[in-house]
Specification:
CATH topology of the domain at 2-221: Porin
Number of strands: 17
Number of helices: 6
Structural class: alpha+beta
Order of helices and strands: HHHEEEEEEEEEEEEEEEHHHEE
CATH class of the domain at 2-221: Mainly Beta
Helix content: 10-25%
Distance between the termini: 23 Å
CATH architecture of the domain at 2-221: Beta Barrel
Shape: globular
Strand content: 25-35%
C-alpha cells in the first residue's frame, strides 16, 4: 500500500511546473491536475498488501525524493513526505471503509498539503467505491468534489467527479471551476480522472470565454503494452533498485518477502510469507504491551495544533526531517537481493 501511495509521484512534474509558473491561477490548476493524477491507478483493482507497522517506502527520481512510513496499525495510517525543485508534499492517509454487501465505500480521511512559492495548497479528495467485491467484475468509481484551496491567496478549485450512472453513463467525467478570492470564475477545467485534464479561461459571464482555447494540463500515462497487471513503466520501476535511493532502509516495501514472491509469480509462497509477517507483527505487539512500550515512528510525529479545518477525524502526522538527516549512504544502487526485510522494533526476535 505504501508503494501504491507513491505512484502519484509519477506526475510530480506537475508540481515542478507549478513551482516555475508565474501565474497564480495556473499554478493552482497544475496542483489540481496533480491531485487528479492519483486516480488512474485505481483502474487496477488488485488489493495491495496492508503495510506492517514501521514499514517504509523510499523513492528517488528526477530530482525528487519521497519517503513514506506506516505510523499506525490500528487504525491504519500511512504518512509521506516528498521534496522536489521548489516544492514540498505531505500526506496523512487514514482511509476508513464501510462494507455494503457487494461493494465497499472508501472515505479518504487524512490531510494533504503542498507548499510552493510561499503558498500552501490543501487538497480535499472525493469519495471512492469498490463495486462487485464478491460477485462480478470488480471496478472502482470516484465521485463527489475534489477541492484544492490556496490558503494564502484565497484561490479555490472545485472539481466534480461524476458518479457512474446506468450503463456507465458519466463514468470518469471530471469538470469544475477555479475561483478567485472574490468567488468570480477564473478558469474552467474538464476531463476524465483516468485520462486527462484541460483548462480554459473564463469570460465575464463566468463561462468559457468565446476566444478561449482549451489547453491540456495533464494526461495519464498508459499502462505498458501487454502488461497483465496494468502497470505503467513508472509503477514497474517502484519494484526495483532503479527507483530506490542508495542506503535503502531495511524496512522498505520492496524487500517484503510476500511482495517479492508475488512479483516472481509464486502466489502460494506469497500467501505463506504474508501470513508469517502478520503473525510476527502480532507477536511484536504483544511484546510491546508486556514491556509497557509504545511504538515511535522514525520520520513522522503527531502534529500539535495542526490546521485541520477539513475535520479529518484523525491525528495529523508531520514530517520531522529525521530522514533527511540520515548519514549519507555510499553511491550506487542498493543490492536488494542481499537485504532482509526488517521493520521490527526488535529485529533480533526469531522469525515465525
Amino acid at each position: 500500500m505504501l508503494q501504491k501511495m507513491a505512484e502519484i509521484m509519477e506526475y510530480s512534474w506537475l508540481l515542478d511546473k507549478a513551482a516555475a509558473c508565474e501565474d497564480p491561477e495556473l499554478r493552482l490548476a497544475y496542483v489540481a491536475a496533480f491531485a487528479v493524477g492519483a486516480y488512474p491507478s485505481a483502474e487496477r483493482t488488485y488489493k495491495p498488501f496492508n503495510p506492517i507497522l514501521g514499514e517504509t517506502f523510499e523513492l528517488s527520481a528526477g530530482g525528487m525524493r519521497y519517503v513514506a512510513e506506516q505510523v499506525s496499525h490500528h487504525p491504519p495510517v500511512g504518512a509521506a513526505h516528498a521534496e522536489g525543485p521548489g516544492w514540498e508534499y505531505d500526506i496523512t492517509s487514514a482511509p476508513r471503509t464501510k462494507f455494503l454487501g457487494n461493494r465497499i465505500d472508501v472515505y479518504p480521511l487524512g490531510r494533504t498539503r503542498i507548499r510552493l512559492r510561499g503558498e500552501v495548497y490543501a487538497i480535499h479528495p472525493p469519495q471512492s467505491r469498490v463495486n462487485n467485491v464478491l460477485v462480478g467484475r470488480t471496478w472502482v468509481d470516484h465521485f463527489g468534489e475534489l477541492t484544492v484551496e490556496a490558503r494564502t491567496s484565497g484561490l479555490v478549485c472545485d472539481l466534480v467527479f461524476a458518479e457512474c450512472g446506468w450503463f456507465g453513463a458519466g463514468r470518469y467525467t471530471v469538470s469544475g471551476t477555479l475561483f478567485g478570492p472574490d468567488d468570480v470564475p477564473r478558469l474552467a477545467l474538464e476531463g476524465a480522472w483516468n485520462r486527462s485534464l484541460s483548462w480554459a479561461r473564463c469570460g465575464s459571464d463566468g463561462g468559457v470565454a468565446e476566444d478561449a482555447a482549451w489547453s491540456e494540463l495533464w494526461a495519464a500515462t498508459p499502462p505498458l503494452a501487454g502488461d497483465g497487471y496494468g502497470f505503467t513503466a513508472f509503477a514497474h520501476s517502484l519494484n526495483g533498485a532503479v527507483s530506490a535511493p542508495p542506503g535503502l532502509l531495511a524496512s522498505d516495501s520492496r524487500l517484503r518477502p510476500d511482495r517479492v514472491a508475488l512479483q516472481a509469480g509464486e502466489l502460494g509462497a506469497a500467501g505463506v510469507a504474508k501470513v508469517a509477517l502478520e503473525e510476527r507483527q502480532r507477536a511484536e505487539r504483544r511484546r510491546r504491551e508486556e514491556e509497557g512500550g509504545g511504538w515511535r515512528p522514525r520520520f513522522f510525529a503527531v502534529a500539535e495544533g495542526a490546521d485541520n479545518l477539513e475535520e479529518v477525524d484523525t491525528d495529523i502526522w508531520e514530517y520531522t526531517g529525521a530522514y533527511r538527516r540520515l548519514p549519507a549512504p555510499p553511491p550506487g544502487a542498493p543490492e536488494l537481493a542481499a537485504m532482509v526485510f526488517s521493520p521490527w522494533q526488535w529485529p533480533d526476535a526469531p522469525s515465525l
